[in-house]
């Protein structure tokens, strides 16, 4: 059976990670893999996470399954964090939530729900979008189509081109949207643009599928959830995939949730039964440890405050790095304007150099980013900012 299988190329990001780990040069800089790092290059365990985990281990009396919808306290805490405690969709009983193995699991569960409800549905994704969106969504059998989003000339959003493309979509078409901290570009819509987009979605009767992987790492917990809260208050149906990998630092614990907003409580109850069946066929029961940690944090006012303070420090560090790297690039590469980096949000930016230049950075200077020049700003450190800028200057001058 298996002798007919052929080897395939490694995932580009995973392959890049392996190259970086194998590189023995002490100057190496990892801007490829999408994880937060502090100024020592570590991905820390947050103090709030450590305290909640210690309490969990001390009090836990069983490792029995938690059920197909997951940890109920986690789901409720996530609903309050994502929607806001007083959101109309919550008080109206229109939201149903399922704990998933990371944001990836939430995206795939949402895709399976869409395919079940509308097998011929097409999901429209931004150009570019996170690389794993494509296999996660298309793996369910759904067809994907692109819509314009990023403007390389400005480092911002091509909003007119985006809305013109979405205006042409048929009713009930699904549109995948990034709530904040767009991956891979860092270019986000303004609140005014989100309001204009909501009007378009209403007019065209589109179905939003909103991915929020970085709540709290852009502007604030509330501001980063603006689009979700706006759309879910005004629209009959919205899917929201949420990840706890970045803002809680729970990467390897695979913690996420799918929130589905329905038109009525009756429809919400029916949707939940289908979600349970779909989840049962994919992972049966979700892992509890990471979700229990999040529940422990969100259910304790002191731990919630501590976590929010740590998240603020992470966000501030990323914003400071954006300003600092722009300054360094301005000093060493005055012929090229990289000012757009300072105006973007979250961990990522499209650097805007060619694939050949990206590879030259890697081979000559041990600076690692993906071939399309997506860089993880959080991978920089104060001590290597100048080295990075000088390396870029040499590559651009070659």
Topology-level CATH name of the largest domain: Aspartate Aminotransferase, domain 2
- Span of the ends, CA to CA: 50 Å
The CATH superfamily of the largest domain is known as Type I PLP-dependent aspartate aminotransferase-like (Major domain)
Overall CATH class of the largest domain: Alpha Beta
How do the strands of the widest beta sheet line up side by side? 2-10-9-8-7-3-4
Report the CATH architecture of the largest domain.
3-Layer(aba) Sandwich
The residue-averaged pLDDT reads 96
User: How many beta-strand elements?
Assistant: 13
Radius of gyration: 21 Å
In helices, the fraction of residues equals: 40-55%
Strand % is: 5-15%
Order of helices and strands: HEHHHEHEHEEEHEHEHHEEHHHHEHEEH
- Give the biggest beta sheet: 7 strands, mixed
Tally of DSSP helical segments:
16
Unreliable segments of 5+ consecutive residues: none
What is the structural class? Answer: alpha/beta
Integer tally of domains: 2
Overall spatial form = globular
How is the topology of this model organized?
Blueprint: H1 12-22, E1 29-30, H2 47-59, H3 72-83, H4 88-91, E2 95-101, H5 102-117, E3 122-127, H6 133-138, E4 143-148, E5 150-151, E6 156-157, H7 159-167, E7 174-178, H8 191-204, E8 207-212, H9 221-224, H10 226-234, E9 238-243, E10 255-261, H11 265-282, H12 289-298, H13 301-332, H14 340-343, E11 348-350, H15 355-365, E12 367-368, E13 374-376, H16 385-397
Parallel strand pairs: 1-12, 3-4, 3-7, 7-8, 8-9
Antiparallel strand pairs: 2-10, 5-6, 9-10, 11-13
What labels describe this entry?
398 residues; alpha/beta; Aspartate Aminotransferase, domain 1; 2 domains; seven-stranded mixed sheet; two-stranded parallel ribbon; 16 helices; 13 strands; 14% strand
């Amino acid at each position: 059976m298996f002798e007919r299988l052929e080897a395939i190329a490694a995932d580009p990001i995973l392959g890049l990670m392996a190259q970086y780990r194998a590189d023995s040069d002490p100057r190496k800089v990892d801007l490829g893999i999408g994880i937060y790092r502090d100024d020592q290059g570590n991905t820390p365990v947050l103090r709030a996470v450590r305290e909640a985990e210690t309490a969990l281990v001390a009090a836990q009396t069983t490792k029995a399954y938690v059920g197909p919808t997951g940890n109920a306290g986690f789901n409720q805490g996530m609903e309050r964090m994502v929607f806001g405690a007083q959101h109309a969709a919550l008080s109206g009983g229109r939201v149903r939530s399922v704990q998933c193995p990371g944001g990836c699991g939430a995206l795939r569960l949402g895709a399976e729900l869409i395919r079940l409800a509308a097998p011929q549905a097409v999901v429209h994704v931004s150009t570019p979008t996170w690389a794993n969106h494509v296999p996660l969504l298309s793996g369910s059998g759904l067809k994907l189509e692109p819509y314009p989003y990023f403007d390389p000339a400005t480092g911002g959003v091509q909003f007119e081109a985006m809305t013109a493309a979405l205006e042409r979509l048929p009713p009930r078409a699904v549109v995948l949207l990034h709530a904040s901290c767009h991956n891979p570009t860092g270019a986000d819509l303004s609140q005014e643009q989100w309001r204009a987009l909501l009007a378009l979605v209403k007019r065209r009767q589109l179905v939003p599928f909103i991915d929020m992987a970085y709540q709290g790492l852009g502007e604030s917990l509330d501001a980063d959830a603006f689009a979700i809260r706006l759309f879910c208050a005004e629209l009959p149906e919205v899917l929201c995939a949420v990840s706890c990998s970045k803002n809680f630092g729970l990467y390897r614990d695979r913690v996420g949730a799918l929130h589905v907003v329905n038109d009525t409580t009756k429809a919400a109850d029916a949707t939940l039964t289908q979600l349970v069946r779909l989840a049962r066929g994919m992972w049966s029961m979700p892992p509890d440890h990471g979700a229990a940690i999040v529940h422990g944090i969100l259910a304790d006012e002191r731990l919630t405050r501590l976590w929010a303070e740590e998240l603020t420090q992470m966000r501030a560090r990323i914003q400071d790095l954006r300003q600092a790297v722009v300054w360094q690039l301005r000093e060493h590469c005055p012929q090229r304007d990289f000012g757009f980096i300072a105006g973007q949000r979250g961990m990522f930016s499209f650097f805007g150099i060619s694939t050949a230049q990206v590879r030259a950075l890697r081979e000559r200077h041990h600076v690692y980013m993906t071939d399309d020049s997506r860089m993880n700003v959080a991978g920089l450190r104060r001590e290597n900012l100048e080295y990075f800028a000088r390396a870029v200057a040499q590559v651009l001058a070659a």
